Amino acid sequence: MATASEIYLELVELSGHVVATGAWGATLRADCLYQSAHLAKPGHRCRLLQGTRTITPFTPLAALDLRSGTYIQVVWLSSSAADRHSQSMVFAAIKANGSVVTWGSSDHGGNSTAVAALLTEGIVQVCGNAGAFAAVMADGSVVTWGHAVSGGNSSAVAPLLTEGVVQVCGTDHTFAAIKADGSVVTRGNAYYGGNSSAVAALLTEGVVQVCGNIAAFTAIKANGSVVTWGSSDHGGNSTAVAALLTEGIVQVCGNAGAFAAVMADGSVVTWGHAVSGGNSSAVAPLLTEGVVQVCGTDHTFAAIKADGSVVTRGNAYYGGNSSAVAALLTEGVVQVCGNIAAFTAIKANGSVVTWGSSDHGGNSTAVAALLTEGIVQVCGNAGAFAAVMADGSVVTWGHAVSGGNSSAVAPLLTEGVVQVS
Predict the structure, then answer these.
(1) Which of the four CATH numbers 3.40.1190.20, 3.30.420.10, 3.10.20.90, 3.40.50.720 does domain 6-77 have?
(2) pLDDT at 23 (0 to 100)
(3) Are the C-beta atoms of 176 and 167 separated by less than 8 Å?
């Protein structure tokens, strides 16, 4: 029961699932609510909404309008591992019972029969890269499958992955694991970020999020600073913007060759290949404030502003031109997800807007009737999208070979799905 100096609130997902309830001191800021949400899903990011208003970590709790109730909506922005679209040609769905269903190219992890006995329960996160998958279990251990060269064989680091892992993230051919103590474990091809020895001293504690692109990693630490490693050609070297990355970073997104970081003040810092969006000078005036999330395709970034609008610029084929759906992106957008060349946006009413390459799911007309309401998460891979509905079913579209056609596992996707990676 809340006292006069406390505020009682309920954090609730779009599906109606209660994430957290409690009484918080009226003098606190909303970062305490974000912390409670993150405890429910370690390694995941979210946005908090009160009606159509975005609650930022810096919003005073005393400023919340409680006349309409104590309900705070939690919109999961997928796992932070999905802050880059996967180059995978496979999807993996986690069901409410903790089991996993995979579909797509069997050569890239779509066939998980070799580890099927380990995927029947207890899975809390799945991450895919170009050729393999890694699943985090409720006991903190990790299961991998797919191409050995891409990390599907983790025997070399098995003793480090038996407990304490809270998040796994990948580049094209390497995985990085965050442990419960805030340290990071990497192994594999050094070019793809598998060797983090150059920054090892910075990765022994305090890491709260890791994001990868094709060949580099970026880690956010608890103090808001950033550590980068991997291919310098893909943003593994951030010295050009190092002075801007010492504090205040709240999200990082990677695409094919660059990274974009959202600051606590709503501004954006970019680095890496200019052609992939590492140089954002052309849209700099739009990125100085009010940005709450950034998402990428291979060579374009899209930014969600605090008012629910979306900013895109760049190569039209990769989703940089959203003029065809501009009227639908002026307000109400709560999440954007990209794959190689297309974007999907979820609106506050649960509907979906798509744009970019029609070959990669930018045209969703084939399933449009299923995307008008009730969407709670969208995931993109190399050439397709998968959307999780509030009823736990899944809708897919895009390249069939990348999982856009899920008919082979359709009976397993009609209910109970809570996340797709």
Answers:
(1) 3.10.20.90
(2) 92
(3) no
Structure-token pair, residue 181: 């103590």
Helix (H) or strand (E) holding 39: helix 31-40
DSSP annotation string for 268-310: EEEEE-GGGTT--GGGGGGGSS-EEEEEE-SS-EEEEETTS-E
Q: Given the structure tokens 């700099």, which residue do they identify?
A: 284
CA distance linking residue 216 with residue 42, whole number of Å: 22
Please state, in angstroms and rounded to a whole number, the distance separating the CA atoms of residues 22 and 376. 24
Report CA torsion sign: 65, 390, 346, 298: positive
What is the C-alpha separation between 176 and 166, in angstroms, rounded?
11
CB within 8 Å of 316: residues ≥ 6 apart: none
At residue 352 the predicted structure's pLDDT band, cuts being 50, 70 and 90, is: very high
153 to 160, 282, 375: CA distances (angstroms): 14, 43, 34
List Cβ<8 Å contacts ≥24 apart for 26-31. Answer: 26/61, 26/62, 27/60, 27/61, 27/62, 28/60, 28/61, 29/57, 29/58, 29/59, 29/60, 29/61, 30/55, 30/56, 30/57, 30/58, 30/59, 30/60, 30/61, 30/64, 31/57, 31/58
CA angle (47 as vertex; 42, 48 as ends), nearest 5: 110
The domain ranges of the chain are: 6-77
Q: Give the tokens for residue 335.
A: 């999440």
Tokens standing for residue 330 = 């002026």
Q: What span, in angstroms and rounded, lies between the C-alpha atoms of 216 and 188?
A: 12
Paired residues of 254 in beta bridges: 259
pLDDT class for 2, splitting at 50, 70, 90? low
Q: Which residues contact 55 (CB under 8 A, 6 or more apart)?
A: 30, 33, 48, 49, 64, 72
Percent of the chain with pLDDT over 70: 93
Strands 6-13 and 71-79 come out as parallel
Give the span between the Cα atoms of 258 and 255, in whole angstroms.
Answer: 6
270 and 258 in contact (C-beta within 8 Å)?
A: yes
Residue 290 gets the label, from left (phi > 0), alpha (psi -120 to 50) or beta, of left
